[in-house]
Structure formats: structure tokens, C-alpha cells
Amino acid sequence: MTHWWQSGIVYQIYPRSFQDSNGDGIGDLPGIRQRLDYLHWLGVNAIWISPVYPSPMADFGYDVSDYRAIHPLFGSLADMDSLIAAAHQRQIKVILDFVPNHTSDQHPWFLASRSARDNPRRDWYIWRDAAPDGGPPNNWLSRFDGKAGWTWDAPTGQYYLHTFLKEQPDLNWRNPELRQAMLDVMRFWFDRGVDGFRVDVAYRVLKDAQFRNNPPNPNWQPGMDPFHRLIDKYNRNIPEIHQFNRWLRQVADAYPGRVLIGEINLPLPQLVQHYGQGDEFHLPFNFSLIHTAWTATAVRALADQYEGLLAASAAWPNWVLGNHDQHRVATRLGPAQARTAMLLLLTLRGTPTLYYGDELGMADVPIPPDQVQDPWELYVPGQGLGRDPERTPMQWDGSANAGFCPAGVTPWLPLANNYETVNVARQQNEPASMLALSQALIHLRQRTPALNQGSYQSLDTPAGLLAYLRRHDEESYLVVLNFTADVCHWQLPAGVTPQAILLSTHMDQPTALAGSSLHLRPNEGLVLRI
Ligand code: NOJ
Ligand code: CA
After folding, report:
1. Residue/partner pairs of 281-284 with CB below 8 Å, 24 or more apart
2. What number of other Cβ atoms are within 10 A of residue 234's Cβ?
3. 62 lines ligand 1 (CB under 6 A)
4. Does residue 24's CB lie within 6 angstroms of at least one atom of ligand 1?
5. What is the mean pLDDT of the segment spanning 331-356?
6. DSSP letter, residue 488
């Protein structure tokens, strides 16, 4: 049986930036609801919404101060209930973000924990005595400034651990009461009809029980991300982490049809271990396309390696080209290759996750220094680490503020200055637009079992091309991608006999086929039926 999260397509919404419904310049839940018909038209099966819980917004919602409520900026619990209902009416599933590694320092649990050493919540966070010299207990670093990952609490005379900002104290999942409290949070949302969770930094949640120092990174040089001075051996992906995955999975398995997607940013051999024996994550996010050189050879090697690692197991692959922490794919690869990348994402075997706006070819927006929001950019300025550029408002139409918020309102991050040409309304009317391509690919994938659940087999090609077969029952499809800006010819191998070209990334009627020879234009991708 194929589950919805296998054959389906996930669409990530960064809620602050999708649609503002009340004119405060910040996107919200009623705004998402207003745009469900667009998502239905686009053809996606699920939305993953980055955190919308009450939060002081030190890390834009990834610092949660109440796991069971909605921040008033985004709406109310009633708004979430009606969003879930309205999405379900359109056969769209709703995936929320679950942030288990840390809370906000304003969460009542942490306020209690730091109030006294003998407070019953003390052990819900990770407190340690100072080192003999009074310094932090070990050398672990904090993600956004590369400084000590420990903050001294003078009133109680101990340090607390924070893998991210000091406003994001780490929870202690080795404490059974904390664990129950957090697993109950999952149940709370499952009971409200949520279809799954994306689990934030899942692979960092458990820490070495002995708190050993991390080793230095021999490859680090000044000018690089200061966090990478050390290899985070003892506070990331430690052997016990699989137990954490299983705790979550046991809760999810009590609810039929739910999905757990783990944010696990690891090389493929380590990544695939997070499927467990079918008792850990359904989908450990596969970020490798973001980190791999954009060449046909490298991408083929990657897909083949992944397929090889998953062979002989029931584990289901998945692919990601962008998210709210990564520079936009259209900026990384340029607009022409962003089109072939979209074709790749939507024709590889495995669940694709699309980042909002990538379907239009939205690019990174340069943020003037006085408008920076992301704490990472504020702490480590000018190194390109800040994430505001990929979090700018969705470009809906050519009106003032692109239809994201009313004219005259200042959106929380500036709009792209190309929004009058790159926007949904305009691209919906342009037959060869990036949006037209994305929608055509989505619909082709949805109606084609070979593409949404068939097998994968790569083929040898001339340099610069990537080709693979997708097959299911009697159906066979050939996908060919030209990773170069040159024309490429390919004498097809014996046995590969195209019947029809179903789609070109150029969105025209290509004349690519001459007998058994295939002719690809610069940056062109093709889907053929064979
Ligand atoms: C990963 C999230 O994707 C990122 O946006 C956030 O800042 C960190 N986890 C901390 O929660
Ligand atoms: Ca709003």
C-alpha cells in the first residue's frame, strides 16, 4: 500500500511570509487559509507550516513559549482548527513543526527550572556546574554565534546548555517527566487532526551522557562559520539518538496515517540510519541535493548512492531543494537550472518537499543591514549565513506589496524588487512561466504512478546529461536533464525507444527526437514516455 506521504508532494510554508490577512505586515493562519485554493490548483498534497506557537521570536518561532497554543500574531487555536478543516476539505494534509530540542527561555517550564535548584522542573533542562576554572562545563558551542553553548545563571550558580541562542535552552529528554510532557504535546496536535510533524534538529536532541569535549575541526579556517571550529561529535547524532526517534514514532503510530519527518542534516550513509527498522522517521529529510555540486555526474552519483542505501528495505526516499535555512535554489543555480532542478525534484523517486515561492523561481532578496531580522546575521554579519534573504514575502501579484499585505503597510521583510514580473498572477497567465512548469510537473507526477511511486534506474549518458528511467507495472518514463548551457545530443541506448515527449522545461512542443537520437537544448529537461 502506498501512503499519502509517499506518493504525495509536501509544500513548506514559512508562515510569517505567506499571506498577511490583517494588515500588520506579517503572514498568519487566516492568510494561509485564504490561499488554500492556490495550493489546491498547484496540486500539492500537504503543507508543512514552520512554527506558529507563542514565542518571543528570538529565532522567529523556533523559540517556543507554549507548545499548545498559537501566537496571536498568527491567529488563534480556532484559526488553526479551521485551517486544518479547510485544508482537509481540499485533500491537503497539515504538518506542523515540532521543536523538541529547546524551548524559549520564557517558557514557564524554563522559568520554573531556573527559579531554584530544587524546583521540580530543574532537571527538565540541562544544567551543569562550572568547570574548575569557573568557565563553561565543556567546549560545546552555540550554533548562531559560535561562542560557548552554555550560559551562566548567577542566582542558582550553574550553567544551562543551549545549542542555539541563549534564549533557546535545551530540554533534557533523559528526564522521563519532560519526555512525557513533550510526547503529550504531539498527542495534543494529533488529536486536533494534524497529519504529521517536521521535527526540528531531531539529530541534536540527545547529548553525550558524559558531556565530553568536542574535538577540533582540522579543516576549519578563520572566516568560516565559527561554529564549525569543532566537530560536534558529542552533541549531534550520538548513538542513543535512535531511542529518541523511537519515542516519537511510538506516539505517531498510535494515530493512523500520520507522518514524521526528521530534520536530519547528515550525509546519506548516516541519514538512512534514521529510518531505523521502520520504527523511527518515516522521512528523514534528505538535504543532499542542496549540498552537492550541481553537475550531472555528482547528482547521478548521489541519487544512485541513496537508492543503493535504501535497496532491500521498505524505507521511502525523499528530496529537498530548499527551505527557510538555505539560500533559494534560483539564486544558487540561476533561473535556467532552477527549472531543470524543479523537474529533477518532481521526477526522482521519493517524496518531494517544495519551499514556498520556489515554484515561481523566487530568488534570495538582499536585505539592507538596517532591515536584518535573523539573529544569525546579527551575530555573524556579512558572511552570508543570515536566512532573511530566503524568507521574504510571497509574490502573489503585481500590486503594491505583491498582494502579501495591503498597500501602505511595511512587510516584516522587504519584498523582492522583481515582484511585478515574478508573481503568481502573472505567471499563471504565461504558458512558459516557471509556475506553469511547476504546476505541469506536479500534475504530471500526480497522474503518473511511474513517477510518484515507480522504480528508479539511472542510465549512462554523454557528459553533462543525467538520465533515468521511472517504471511501474507496464509504464516506463525516461527523464533526461541537461545540466549545461550547451546543446547536447544523445544516441539513445538499444531498448530505450521513446513514444512521446510529455514535457520540456521550456514548456513548448520540442522536436528533440530524431530516430533514436535525442537533442537537448541548453538547460533543458525532458520527460518522455517509452
Ligand atoms: C532548524 C530550523 O530549521 C532553524 O530555522 C532554527 O533556527 C533551528 N533549527 C533552531 O530551532
Ligand atoms: Ca498578519
Report:
1. 281/199, 281/202, 281/245, 281/249, 282/3, 282/5, 282/196, 282/316, 283/5, 283/259, 283/316, 283/318, 283/351, 284/202, 284/318
2. 20
3. yes
4. no
5. 98
6. E
390 is catalytic: no
Distance 189 CA to ligand 1 centre (A): 20
Is the CB of 59 within 6 Å of ligand 1?
Answer: yes
Q: Give pLDDT, residue 246.
A: 98
Please choose from 62, 96, 101, 264 the residue to mutate so as to test ligand 1's pocket, defined by most ligand atoms within 8 A of CB.
62
CA-angle at 27, arms to 98 and 248, nearest 5°: 5
Q: Among 200, 359, 390, 524, which one carries the catalytic annotation? A: 200
If asked whether residues 117 and 86 sit together in one domain, one would say no
Q: What is the pTM of this model?
A: 0.98
| Element at 219 (helix H, strand E) | none
**pLDDT digit string, tens, across residues 448-463:** 999 999 999 999 999 9
Cell readout for 57 is 521570536
Shared-domain flag, residues 185 and 148: no
Tell whether 234 and 368 lie within a shared domain: yes
Q: Which atom of ligand 1 is nearest to the CA of 63?
A: 11
Ligand 1 atom with minimal separation from the 164 CA: 10
Position 458 in a domain: yes
- Cα dist from 201 to 50, 169, 320, 528, whole Å: 13, 14, 16, 39
CA distance 354 to 323: 8
Residues 275 and 313 placed together within one structural domain of the fold: yes
User: E strand or H helix at 403, and its extent?
Assistant: none
**How many distinct structural domains can be found in the chain?**
3
CA distance 59 to 91: 32
- The mean per-residue pLDDT over the stretch 225-254 comes to 97
Residue 151 structural domain: 108-161
261 CA distance to ligand 2 centroid (A)?
28
Residue carrying the nine cell digits 491567529: 75
Does 200 participate in catalysis according to the annotation? yes
What contacts 55, CB < 8 A, 6 or more positions away?
Answer: 61, 62, 63, 64, 65, 71, 104
| Residue 78 and residue 33 in one domain | yes
